[in-house]
Every structure is written in structure tokens, then in C-alpha cells.
Amino acid sequence: MFKKILFLLLFAGITLNATIATEPTVTKLYIATFDRAPDATGLEYWIESGLELENIAISFFAQTETQEKYPDSASNEDFINSVYWNLFRRSPDDVGLQYWNINLENQKVTKSLFILSAINGALGDDAEILNNKTTVGLAFAKANRDDAEEATEILLDITKDKDTVDRALCQFDLAECIDIVPEESDEEDIDIEPINNDDILADAFENQTSDIQVNGGGSVTRILSDDNEGSRHQRFILELASGQTLLMAHNIDLAPRISSISLGDTVEFFGEYEWNSKGGVIHWTHKDPNQNHIDGWLKHDNITYQ
User: Fold this and answer.
1) Stretch 253-279: mean pLDDT, rounded?
2) Longest Cα pair distance anywhere in the chain, in angstroms?
3) N or C: which terminus of the chain carries fewer CB neighbours within 10 A?
């Protein structure tokens, strides 16, 4: 089945400039899509396939396991709720549910892209839960475990509490359980790598695509004067690692200003991309007071502005 999927992808002309797949990012895809840890065989296959992360996410929907979990009769709302539950053990808020449902219905985003966006948008407790699940899931696969029932069971009780990680690892006799117990241990935890949206943004720029909910980060290269026409916006230019530049238009009538920003600072963002000829604009980096749009944010010096 794996070889058939790889063949179809390679000859279907899929040309997205996408994110390089790593063990942690593919593990997150398993969690979001299947609500389980990756099996050792599957994780090894996808890493060695040479496919980029977005194409792996697409290919998951050609698998029998996915088709059985999300049959054609299931609504988009059911799908959104399932993914949120798989990732965060909670339902989406009403605004997020409505936003993603509309975009899936209108085919502005695919199910695979929604999954990547949900992973990327994790903040606070959600991010901690997902990182803990990823630590456990990756340890399960690296121990050469392939039992599907165990892959599901090992994640059932994982929360934002680090103790749940240790309990799960020890319950399934995984060696890492000893390493995670001390809170101030000098030993390195498994490196959890965030999914990078630089290539999604590059593809959007190349194809002049707008209205894409994305997250990422870059270095401040220019600080511009505020735009005071209509709603006031703080403006600055970010350069991504890819070299693409983005104008950040941050509504300071609805969200706090980043007052301490300087050239060379790193700023992370979660907002909506609009195409322009200079690289694009990121806006909606704030909460929507009318609750008609998914909430965005900026992060600078470990402080979130929204």
C-alpha cells in the first residue's frame, strides 16, 4: 500500500515546495490524522520515502485506515471535531469550527492542509499536550513497536502534565521513562520540531494565492510607520529563512502593540496571508471581537500579542 501511494504521488505531478519531513513532524501527522502513535514500520517508510511533509499529509487520505476513520458520509464538522480531539482532547471553539467548516466547504483548504494548520496553530495548553503526545509517540516508534492497539492506548491519558509522559513510557516499558522523571535533568529530551510554513508561503506567493491561514516566523528587517487610515496598524517587515519578505500589518486598535521591537528581532505569527508583489501581507494577527474569524497572534520575546 505504501509503495502504491508513493507511485501515485510521484506521477501525479504534485509540485508543492513543501516542508522537509522529520520524525517529530510526521509523528504529529499520525496523531492528528489517526489518533495514535506511529508504528515503527510506517514512520521509517515515510521518512525514507523522500516525500515532503505536505505530500505525506495528502497521501494519508489514500490509506484505508483514513477512509474508514473519515468516511464520505461524515460531515466536515465531524472531521474538524475529530482532528481537534485527536490533537488536543477538546472540541474547537465555535469561531474556529465555523471558520474551518466554511473553508473546507468552499474548498479553500484541503483536509490535509487543515490538519497542518491545526498543528501549527497550537498554543498554550494545546501546544504542551501535542508536544507531550509527540514525545511519547516518537518513543513508541523508535522502540520498534508496531501494535496498532498499543499505539492508540499509549496516548489516551497524555495531558499537558509531564508526569503523564513518564507514566505512559514506563507503562509500555520504553527506555525513555527513566530519563524524563527528573524535572531538572541535564539529559536532552526528544527534539520536537515545529512544522515550518515557509514553503507554503513561498507557494502562495508564486501562485498569487490569498486568504490562507498560516503561521511562521522571521527576522525584523524594517520598522515602518503606523498605518493610521481607518483602523490603526503597526507595520514592520519580516524576512523568513527562505528569503521571502512579509509585511506584518498588526491591528493595534484590537491588539496590543509590540513596543520593544527592534531590527534583527525574531517575531512569530499566526494570521491570514494576502498576496502582493513584494512577498505578501500577514494580517488578522488578533482576536476577532465579532467572532467571525479565527483568532491570530504575534509572539515576540515569549510574549503573545492578540
Assistant:
1) 92
2) 61
3) N
CA dihedral 33, 38, 43, 46 (to 10 degrees): -10
Using alpha carbons, select from 235, 242, 237 the residue that is nearest to residue 200: 242
Structural domain count of the chain? 2
H/E segment holding residue 239: strand 233-239
Which range of residues forms the domain containing residue 85? 1-195
Per-residue pLDDT band for 203 (boundaries 50, 70, 90) equals confident
Q: How many CA atoms lie within 13 A of 204 on its CB side?
A: 27
Position 196 scores a pLDDT of 53
**Cβ(131)–Cβ(192) below 8 Å:** yes
8 A C-beta contact, residue 294 and residue 213: yes
Nearest alpha-carbon partner for 37 in 120, 149, 113 = 149
Is it the case that residue 227 has pLDDT exceeding 70?
Answer: yes
The three cell numbers locating residue 48: 525514507
For residues 281 and 273, the answer to whether their CB atoms sit within 8 Å is yes
- Top-confidence residue, 2 or 165: 165
Contact 264, 219 (CB under 8 A): yes
Q: Which of 151, 176, 195 is the last residue of a domain?
A: 195
Residue 207's contacts (CB-CB under 8 Å, 6 or more residues apart) are none
Residues 125 and 186 in one domain: yes
Residue 255: all three cell numbers together: 491588539
Of the residues 179, 195, 211, the one at which a domain ends = 195
Q: Parallel, antiparallel, or unpaired for β 245-251 and 281-283?
A: parallel
Cα–Cα distance for residue pair 214/280, rounded to 1 Å: 12
- Is residue 51 a contact partner of residue 59, using CB atoms and an 8 Å limit? yes
Number of helices (H) and strands (E) in the chain: give both, helices first.
13, 7
d(CA 164, CA 299): 28
